[in-house]
Specification:
Largest sheet: 2 strands, antiparallel
Low-confidence stretches: 1-11
GO molecular function, one term: guanyl-nucleotide exchange factor activity
Order of helices and strands: HHEEH
Pfam families: PRONE
Protein name: PRONE domain-containing protein
Organism: Arachis hypogaea (Peanut)
Radius of gyration: 20 Å
Number of helices: 3
Structural class: alpha+beta
Keywords: Guanine-nucleotide releasing factor
Strand order of the largest sheet: 1-2
Shape: elongated
Length: about 110
């Protein structure tokens, strides 16, 4: 299992996207690192890749940005609140990457 970890140390923490990128890079080395030629991927490695990628990408469902919105109060006043919205970069790019990944796994 790949763990998300902070490589910087201290209390600064690590950007979530960068932590995911590092974890996916580590996973790719574990799964594909010893392949020296293009050949079908053993079923065990393929299932490990798919299982770990599903686990690693699950936080992307919660990567949101807060956008202002208006809300009517019961007393007739209008308040401006912040509402969560899916990040456009994740919403646009992730499905395309998942489609490429599944095509690659089916082929090899």
């Amino acid at each position: 299992m790949i763990h998300l970890y902070c490589i910087q140390g201290g209390t600064k923490g690590l950007n979530t996207a960068l932590a995911l990128s590092n974890a996916i890079s580590s996973l790719s080395v574990m799964v594909f690192g010893k392949l020296w030629k293009l050949e079908p991927l053993p079923e065990e490695r393929k299932s490990k890749w798919q299982r770990e990628m599903d686990w690693l990408l699950s936080p992307t469902n919660y990567m949101v940005e807060l956008v202002p919105a208006k809300q009517n109060a019961s007393i007739g006043e209008i308040f401006e609140i912040m509402t969560p919205k899916a990040r456009s970069d994740v919403h646009m790019n992730l499905p395309a990457l998942q489609k490429l990944d599944s095509a690659f796994c089916r082929r090899y």
